[in-house]
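Hey, can you fold this one?
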Amino acid sequence: MPGVQDSLEIKFRLIDGSDIGPKSFPASATVSTLKESIISQWPKDKENAPRTVKDVKIISAGKILENNKTVGECRSALCDVSGGITTMHVVISQPPQEKEKKATKLNQNKCACVIL
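Sure. Predicted structure:
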């Protein structure tokens, strides 16, 4: 069956154990395209929603997938089951704004003495 080789059924497992998908992606789709799909389908009731592709990391077969790679390039022998669904794990990076807020709070409490 040539159609089986050209696409992959993927579901994305979130950190809380819930899933997005499954959805069919062509082998030519990039990891960046997968990330855009995750962002657009992110459950509305979940906190810490990713804002950009850079906020999302996809892990498949123990490897973090690179944005410029295609689904076909990332496909492992474990995922090549005819008619099967591949599960990829999704990790969301902490927004840098929260880190900056913590650092700002620490810096606000400093005092400086000047002896003239």
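The helical segments are 2-6, 31-41, 71-74, 96-108. Let me know if you want another pass with a different chain boundary.
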